[in-house]
Amino acid sequence: MERATHTLNELFRQLGLPDGSADIDRFIAAHRPLPPQTALADAAFWQPAQARFLREEIAEDADWAELVDMLDARMRVH
Question: What are the CA-CA distances from residue 59 to residues 25, 27, 38, 44 (Å)?
Fold first, then answer.
């Protein structure tokens, strides 16, 4: 199966968030660092549908999983 290629901007659009590069940087800066014991999808700042989407993509190793992992990594950097 060939994986779809998505961008972080598209992930933010999929989540219903502002998706410009500066918007993404501001979102990450406002919400990091995410505590090591907190899964990305369990962070308090997500709406229920957003958290569900993030959980499902990781659990299913779906098209967006790589970008969800990338976002997770960026959320943990100080």
Answer: 26, 24, 16, 20
